[in-house]
Backbone:
């Protein structure tokens, strides 16, 4: 009797110890298997953009892009740079590709303007940190979406995005949105409200209707702007973006971070 | 028995305080008839029965919001089998364009805050 009691306690102790060590490992194994499955088969398409740096040195093209974007999405034009809302805008080469410049890079190249926008990353850090799943990566085409109904304005995503692609509405944007002569907004696209984060949506509203993004269309409309911006699906082997990526020397922003940006630049 | 007067005064104050919401509503806000809504002249019914819409429009709109924004599904089949485009600004507003005389009237009456139009853009006065 005495011996079997002792044996029982010993076995129980061993079992508890075994469970304690084994369970965490089992958990890690399961979650990593899940992640692998998600990144391999979760997405059935990936929209991407290829921007020709040289062609986009033309000021007219870049202005047309930003203007078209503003008009298509009722984006406010706030003069104070601390509060401004940007979906696509200009940035100096040295700030876009910090890891590609050095002390002896020519000054003109460092200062050259580059169009920047949300990269719709393969592994978007903004999506990982969002506490309400207000931002997520859409399976069907890889667009990093925003649900303004869910955004609580915590700005975690802004801290997580290494490209500064997101803007926060510090003010009521309606006071700064362009209106037509009758005092109405230029489009039906919902405006945002104070206290939410917004960014480029790859024109999902236009894609749904079979159009291409407003910036790409605007760039092509400017003389010399044909091919300055090209948009397409990476999973389609015959798409124009795939052809360009195969033929040209292209770069992405901060490749070493492993976010997998889907906006490519032809150098 | 000396406190009889005080007790009656106290009771009177209590009764006035407890019934305050009832007589205050009657005296200050006046009549409480149902708000008059602007209804589209060329339609007899919304996408579902009127009773259902009155009671459940908020549930339906929330469902529409989630299916359209999060799942990208933009078609709704009504109980009568009609397929309807899920869109606040085109489907709802195509009839209820005068939202100040439709949404706002009931919501003001029942003191329920309406936030849809803080962001969604509706053409005015159709």
Residues:
């Amino acid at each position: 009797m005495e011996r079997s009691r002792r044996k029982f306690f010993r076995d129980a102790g061993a079992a508890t110890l075994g469970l304690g060590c084994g369970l965490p490992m089992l958990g890690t194994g399961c979650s990593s298997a899940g992640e692998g499955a998600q990144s391999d088969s979760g997405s059935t398409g990936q929209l991407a953009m290829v921007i020709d740096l040289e062609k986009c040195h033309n000021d007219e093209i870049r202005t047309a892009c930003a203007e078209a974007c503003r008009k298509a999405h009722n984006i406010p034009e706030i003069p104070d740079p601390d509060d401004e809302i940007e979906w696509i805008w200009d940035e100096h080469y040295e700030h876009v590709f910090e890891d590609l410049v050095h002390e002896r890079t020519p000054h003109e190249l460092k200062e050259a303007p580059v169009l920047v926008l949300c990269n719709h990353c393969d592994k978007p850090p903004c999506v990982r940190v969002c506490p309400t799943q207000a931002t997520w990566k859409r399976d069907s085409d890889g667009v990093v979406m925003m649900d303004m109904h869910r955004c609580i304005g915590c700005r975690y995503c802004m801290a997580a995005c290494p490209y500064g692609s997101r803007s926060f509405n510090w003010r009521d944007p309606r006071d700064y949105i362009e209106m037509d002569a009758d005092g109405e907004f230029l489009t039906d696209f919902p405006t945002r409200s104070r206290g939410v984060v917004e960014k480029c949506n790859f024109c999902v509203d236009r894609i749904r209707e079979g159009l291409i993004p407003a910036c790409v269309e605007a760039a092509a409309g400017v003389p010399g702007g044909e091919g300055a911006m090209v948009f397409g699906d990476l999973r389609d082997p015959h798409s124009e973006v795939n052809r360009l990526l195969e033929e040209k020397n292209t770069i992405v922003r901060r490749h070493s971070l492993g976010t997998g940006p889907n906006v490519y630049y032809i150098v | 028995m000396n406190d009889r007067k005080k007790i009656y005064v106290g009771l009177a104050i209590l009764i006035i305080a407890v019934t305050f919401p009832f007589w205050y509503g009657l005296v200050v806000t006046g009549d409480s008839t149902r708000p008059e809504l602007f209804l589209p002249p060329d339609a007899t019914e919304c996408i579902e029965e009127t009773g259902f819409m009155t009671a459940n429009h908020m549930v339906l709109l929330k469902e529409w919001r989630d299916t359209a924004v999060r799942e990208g599904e933009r078609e709704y089949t009504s109980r009568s089998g009609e397929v309807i485009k899920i869109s606040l600004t085109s489907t709802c507003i195509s009839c209820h364009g005068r939202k100040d005389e439709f949404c706002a009237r009931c919501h003001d009456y029942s003191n329920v805050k309406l936030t849809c139009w803080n962001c969604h853009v509706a053409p005015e006065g159709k």
Notes: The two ends of chain B are 72 Å apart (CA to CA). The helical segments of chain B are 4-18, 20-28, 50-70, 88-95, 103-109.
